[in-house]
Amino acid sequence: MKNRFLDRFQKIIEVRLRGKNIERLLRRLMKHNIPMQRIRKIDEQCVHIFIYSKDLEKVEELKTIYDVEVIETHGLLKLKELLKKNRILLGFILIGYVILLFLSHVIFTVEVIHTDKSLRELLEQELSSYGITKYHFKKSYDDLTTIKNQILSDYKDRIEWLEIEEVGTKYVIRVEERILNQSNPDTGYQDIVAKKSAIIMEIDAKSGQIVKNKLDYVKAGDTIISGYITLNDVIKDTVRAEGIVYGEVWYKVSIEYPLHYEEVIETKNKKNVLAFHFLGQTYELFNFHPYKEKKTNSKVLLESNLLPFSFSFDKQTEVYHIKEDYTKEEALNQAVLKIREKIESQLGEDEYIIEIKQLKVEENDSTIILDAFVTVCENITSSKEIAEYVEPQTEPQT
Prior knowledge:
By secondary structure, the chain is of the alpha+beta class. 24% of the residues lie in helices and 47% in strands. The chain contains 8 helices and 24 strands. The strands form 7 sheets. It has a 5-stranded antiparallel sheet with strand order 13-11-17-23-22. A hairpin with a 2-residue loop joins strand 2 and strand 3. It is elongated and about 140 Å long.
């Protein structure tokens, strides 16, 4: 075991011996104490032997009528030859890596995301005073946290929330402006009306007079809770009607679903990888556990117009493929699920699907087409401004 380990660091060469009665030459070499690490027989007149390079001269002296040819080098000698042969490429890689390592610790862009220009300029000035600006070195996570907390403390009346995110060689600053509450209640008069045609399922009135009942059919704009308070069909007062109305709403949906389904699913596994590109090949540096399948978003950090190489910063997301063949019934069930997902994505917290009824199913080549009728319990509350009722004045009799 020890000798085998040391052999890796010796200058070992592979030599081809060819001639009649090749065993005679092998016995001659052993007799002269030439150590052979391995012997590989090719045919009756040819063998390959592995010897130390320093013994090659002795083999040449003892070969007599036999042909001797060096095939390949191994061990430390081979490593030296490879390094010598590729020294220019390795030099470029080393220089590129050093440059890349330097550039990856420098910030080239600072972006503040907010619609208010004055707030953006304020933050840019504050961040610059802490050294967060273009062409400066990146800050540590602890430093960024300290800076963020200090800015929030200094501008607590202006800034509600602040986040500094490092994205490659860029800082993205997201901010929410603090909105001070002002007591200015809306005192306008209004009716609660239907936002769309529906059958009323529930009315929760806080103020105003209910003028429609449960299970009544209403069209868009119909008044459900009136701001006019009446008694014996006579208006007595005007208020701001408040409340929530839920109704049964109907949708007709058409969806096409394939019988042969394929989808690429992204997992939550993500990583950042430094990649070296050379002659159309990509070599990921220090990526010891590469993804079997992945989605890559690359940003070139360094490239050459003279040599076919470049460095990139790759954001990788692990993915996997789904391939399934459905029967007509299975595809129909999947289509119904898609309709449900589509409708539910548009519903609020208290809204829900009552029923999905299939109207018509057609098969077209490798897809099915489903027409469905969807019944939904939905918030149909809307409002309409009304004028204050003024009781008409009667003229005095003379």
